[in-house]
Amino acid sequence: MKNIRNFCIIAHIDHGKSTLADRLLEFTKTVQVTGGQMLDNMDLEKERGITIKSHAIQMEHEYKGEKYVLNLIDTPGHVDFSYEVSRSIAACEGALLIVDATQGVQAQTISNLYMAIDHDLEIIPIVNKCDMDSAMPEEVEDEIIDLLGCERSEIIRASGKTGLGVEEILSAVIERVPHPVGDEEAPLQALIFDSVYNTFRGVIAYFKIVNGVLRSGDEVKFFNTGKEYEADEIGVLKMDLSPRKELRTGDVGYIISGIKTSKEVKVGDTITHIDRPCSKAISGFEEVKPMVFAGVYPIDASDFEDLRSSLEKLQLNDASLTFQPESSLALGFGFRCGFLGLLHMEIIQERLDREFDMDVITTVPNVSYRIYDKQGGMTEVHNPGGMPEPTLIERIEEPFISASIITDTSFIGPIMTLCLGKRGELEKQNYISGNRVEIQFKMPLGEIVIDFYDKLKSISKGYASFDYHQDSYRPSKLVKLDILLNGESVDALSTLTHVDNAYDMGRRMCEKLKELIPRQQFDIAIQAAIGAKIIARETIKAVRKDVTAKCYGGDISRKRKLLEKQKKGKKRMKQIGNVEVPQKAFLAVLKLD
Length: 593
Ligand code: GDP
Ligand code: MG
Fold this sequence. Notes:
Helices cover 25% and strands 36% of the residues.
């Protein structure tokens, strides 16, 4: 135990966490890096530069003549996965706090730091990307000193690019991070902080032993789910899985025990022995609940079963994805899917497209509302079609979040306007250093899922970082806004929205749909309605569509290309009554401006 160090890296997205982790692995000869990053192994992650799933890896390092085992636990960097981050942090005794020397402290730097401080982690501050011309290490150090109340000498200057500071970081981990403490004689308590699905081996759960000893072949129980297994294989995480006979208090390792789906393993659960169980679970366990819901429909109705099996496969390795069949008059048969947040939704959409070649239409996302009826009962509704008759409803509550935005003082005005326009309430402002400020709001989550990120980005020219966590449910005045095409209500275009937003939203949706739906051989009336009341209207005038007319001369290959393009475009169209609606129209509400 004395020579073990368990630590994680916390950082805002793109501040260089993965790159620096690679340098640590290289320096300790855990891996020979041959270009690219080692810790992110999903293609999608690489492209997006976001570590989606946490991983853990064991390094060995000799320091002052003694051998140490360093377990690096990687954490996902996005708010959607903050529960997973909290469990990874709970498995560690220390954290490297990385701040980009060109960007300074950002929203996730702070939210992750608070989490680490809550768990009493030893924080090692690092200013990264010091190799860059635009680096301002002094200023960023000032920010860190303000934030942590540490000494300048405790901050390490580093570069994941040149390798500056890497050895010093390893020494600091050994010198400053406390070794794990626990009771080897006590009943087994191991904290599950992550799990991955492997086609051949089933689910591999990652854990840290808080107390006790686990041996291969032991009969174990997962405390919160109550499921029992045999520990078929246990071991430590090198570049591959390295089996071991026994793991002791303080060790980080993996267990394979014939678990078939990710749903069976809950991050945050406690592993204990069946014959000598611990008396209570490790605290902090939560069931993760989807926060954002959307309909996912195959473009071609005959793909419904394929879509189901694709979603089942995705769920095998992503337990936070939920789905259940639903049907729409406009879109036919599909699924209501639940996601942790917007990024999670985008990831699933992209994986359906890339890994399963599924052409799908995703409807406007909704959050989950609590509807109280007059008998005192409560149902959670996250689908416009699921709203009961207004006369049956006693009151409605919607989820609120605590949001934190860090930006340049020059953007305070427009950001305030944006947030207040989204029904946000200002909580407080903290000045971080000279010209930067943290603004805290309480806001309805439902306002974030619709075009918030894009707007924040554009008004702040990219210089605002955003982070949030769930807060509470609050009373809300919700209405169902319907869209009619040629007099027919299109259920897939309905949304639930606050009454104050409804008129504006109805008008803008009609305008947007007018842009997005191509002219057809007849006039198309687009209307927005609340109940029987029409609140907005636009008309698309008829036209004979002949795209090839644009081609001058007789360039036949160009003509053919255009026709092919048009055919491909067709695939993404959906026939609603007699109107052809392009796929992007269903997401129109997300891009209102
Ligand atoms: P993460 O999102 O925190 O994991 O960040 P990454 O490690 O993926 O790095 C984000 C981007 O910054 C990538 O394009 C890296 O190549 C680049 N980067 C990371 N560390 C450094 C550094 O020390 N110096 C420079 N110049 N670029 C870096
Ligand atoms: Mg990364």
